[in-house]
Amino acid sequence: GRDLWVLVLGRFPTHHKIGIPEFKYVANMHGDETVGREILLHLIDFLVTSYRRDPVITRLLNNTRIHIMPTMNPDGFEATKVPDCYYTRGRYNKNGEDLNRNFPDAFDNNNASIQPETRAVMDWIKNETFVLSANLHGGALVASYTFDNGNSVTGSSKGYSRSPDDDVFIHLAKTYSFNHASMYKGTGCDNRQTFPEGITNGYSWYQLEGGMQDYNYIWGQCFEITLELSCCKYPPEDQLEKFWRDNKAALIEYIKQVHLGVKGQVTDKNGNPIANAIVEAQGRPHVCPYRTNEQGEYFLLLLPGTYVINATVPGFRSMLKTLEIPDNTGNFSALKHDFSFPEVSIRSRAASCPRIPLYQELERASAAVKPTLHTLVLTTVMLVIFK
Fold first, then answer.
1. Fold observed for domain 7-259
2. Of 209, 224, 228, 280, which is the active-site residue?
3. Which CATH class is domain 263-340?
């Protein structure tokens, strides 16, 4: 029955402000992995004391709403009576459940009973417009990215589970690893485990069902990576200052990436926001389409380049816009582009994505339909006839 505490920092910490992206750090999901918990407390202190003193931190906080949850599993942390570098029962919550195997999964039926901590985080994700996130762990030294699970649709048969935004995830992981004191070296924690450039696709490392980073990406429209920050899960206290120094620059540079890509509002002919409009970049559709929030806002993390952005209000003609997207992270604001639907004067109905394993259904559909050339021709003719 205890609370999970989050500190929110920014120019407008108490509420969402249109155009200001939401960012989050979560640590101590496994109660015995303590480094992330401690360095997030250091990060809070650094951000607060640097505001209006450091121009970069001041601009960052003026243009970003930053949520920090130092511990997602306080019961597990307190259960770790004897600190250990490798494993203790404090990994799990009070009910003996692994919280990073506890979320709905996009690939498999996850039969785990949803825990109170998991439910609280799911509700938190639902109630905020998170754009970017990181989940801090221990036991290795690497930045791991989506997908953690996979099937033939995402190419996992080849040992890699690729998301539609794989290029962005690689960039995010490298942003952290190359700004970390040593993660980029990729040496891992022993000779058996190496990670080139200090990053890995989650599935390539090991398959994980019910993980939080896949849940964020599929159902939360939030890009999340998992940061493994220490070979020793619960190191001695006198090492904490060094862990903070090793991660300080990386933590700040990673937050800046929330300003990648493009953002804007979708409105009707009267200038009213349209919620639940679909806004995505062509060529990278999400299995659960990314939609605008209640203020009609969308945020798309994209690397610099040329993209066609497709805005769709169900029942109306889509709007397409070709945009040249620069790297605006240094300006603390993604490229802004609004869409106005002159023929629309109604609020879009609420839309939700089912919690069923979406990629599982997609795999079944692709396996069931493997048409020959003759079948494809016939299908095309039938579509023309019945249009």
1. Aminopeptidase (3.40.630)
2. 228
3. mainly beta
